[in-house]
Design a protein that fits this description.
Length: 294
């Protein structure tokens, strides 16, 4: 029950009506009997700065930040975690109230998207010393690529329809992670290149929106004959859960990681940043699947 002592968490985005985070986060808060509530906030781009200032004035304890604010919010925060800074996007803000609610407020930004994807994959296999191939070079790909490249892998290949964008992401990774001994390369978005990269990959992550509702009949980025039994296949699209790629992966007897797991674990990580308390994964997963209608 909400009372005078209830603390506030939430998510800011534009649009926001579609968000599944309140169902997942409130289930976690309730199961631990924490006097917190997690709310959706519809914030237009021209209102972002006021919204962050308002959050401080209201004593809000933590926020998720979603499209289209993940990059613009960086300039409004006091401190940015080093990985979020390399990625150039923040999806989680921690508000630290010095000397209680009336004192100074310190805002720190994190990016838990890549962590979410990595943890989902590591439920099936460790990425250490492995080869990972990523399709797509947009916002989600960037967060995932930086996290994965920082996880003791051996090789990372990125393919994208717009080759220049993939090249620029690979340059960015090489510049920021020069001290790591990883083979990072870019390949063309062509069937032969995908076939070559996947033949010796251990993990394949599709970060394109191919197959996402309502385009559920889109042809999968890779058909079963390009996949193999030892390959972990993760499609980060989570509506529907059984995307065209996941169906092809099942035909190939590959190891499947559904897209909702990334959403789950990015939320788990945010929860733990705000509350310094282990998140109740089972309850949050059940609520997320319920909200997704699965
Ligand atoms: N599971 C999760 O928690 C989670 C989190 C974030 C995002 N997502 C999902 O991930 C997807 C991508 O999100 P984003 O923010 O990265 O989007 P984005 O920044 O717009 O990037 C989309 C990427 O997909 C490529 N692409 C788009 N349509 C394509 C097509 N028809 N054929 C081949 N490539 C195509 C784009 O290639 P070009 O550069 O050539 O245009 C670009 O590299 C969305 O479906 C989103 O819902 C899931």
């Amino acid at each position: 029950m909400v009372d005078g002592k209830t603390e506030i968490l939430g998510v800011m985005g534009d649009p926001i009506k579609h968000t599944f985070s309140p169902a997942m986060q409130n289930a976690g808060l309730e199961s631990l009997n924490l006097n917190y509530i997690y709310l959706p906030f519809h914030v237009k781009p021209n209102g972002l700065s006021q919204a962050i200032e308002g959050a401080k004035a209201l004593g809000i304890k933590g926020l998720n930040i979603t499209i289209p604010h993940k990059t613009d919010v960086i300039g409004l925060l006091d401190e940015i975690d080093s990985l979020a800074s390399m990625i150039g996007a923040v999806n989680t803000i921690q508000f630290i109230y010095e000397d209680g609610d009336g004192g100074n407020v310190l805002t720190k930004g994190y990016n838990t998207d890549g962590y979410g994807c990595l943890r989902a994959i590591e439920e099936e296999t460790s990425v250490k010393n492995k080869k990972v191939t990523i399709a797509g070079a947009g916002g989600a790909s960037k967060a995932i690529a930086f996290q994965i490249a920082n996880s003791e892998i051996n090789e990372l290949s990125i393919l994208n329809r717009n080759f220049n964008k993939a090249e620029s992401l690979v340059d960015d990774l090489k510049t920021n992670l020069a001290k790591l001994d990883i083979d990072i390369n870019v390949d063309a978005y062509e069937i032969d290149c995908l076939k070559r990269e996947l033949s010796d990959s251990d993990v394949f992550i599709d970060t394109t929106p191919i197959g996402m509702y309502p385009n559920v009949d889109d042809k999968a980025i890779a058909s079963a004959n390009l996949l193999h039994e030892d390959l972990v296949v993760n499609d980060i699209v989570y509506t529907p859960m059984e995307t065209s790629l996941i169906k092809e992966a099942r035909k190939a007897n590959a190891i499947v990681v559904p897209g909702y797991k990334m959403l789950l674990y990015q939320g788990i990580s945010s929860f733990e940043i705000w509350l310094s308390h282990e998140a109740p994964i089972e309850e949050m997963e059940k609520a997320l699947l319920g909200a997704l209608g699965i």
